[in-house]
Write a structure and sequence with these properties.
Length: 222
Amino acid sequence: MTRTKVLLSWSSGKDAAWALHALRQAGDVDVVGLLTTTNEAFGRVAMHAVRESLLEAQAEAAGLPLWKVPLPWPCPNEAYEARMARACASAVAEGIGAMAFGDLFLEDVRDYRIQKLAGTGLAPLFPIWNPDTAGLSRTMVAAGLKATLTCVDPRALDAAFAGRAFDAGLLADLPAGVDPCGERGEFHTFAWDGPMFRHPIPIHRGEVVERDGFVFADLVPA
């Protein structure tokens, strides 16, 4: 039986990395690429603000081709949707039958993705949907997933968390009300090692800056 080819929506963070691990563990689909939107003005992953060189290193470590969707800055929603539609059409033309996402529990985000894929020829997949995020975060750490916080929303979490490792110490230090996986946007991460990668991605932390109301820790290839 032929397995469905899947393109994974790749943010560069821990949840996308864990979704890749889950899809490979399930073994009933074939992940054939990582789809990432980038900010073409700054050469970084949208929101996570990770350098494209590190994004490319992740794809190499995962053993998968990278599908970049460059976005203008600022990016109106119409431009985002048009470019994503072209990427979806390209995927279908290459025989890909589904797109997977690392969403955890935000119903509105899930519904939006389902709506936008309707009629494209790509089925939506949510391989890590609706977990206990406290348990999931501990499972990730125990399995050897290593990630660094690249972006913090200071309205939800102290700016000092930017640049910290996503580990047991961080989970213990998170204040009540902050989701342990940062699913409500409290923080974003860059995954640099774990069972979904063939080898670690060497990094070191650069400067921490505040921009557009968020605190970013720049990660630099080591």
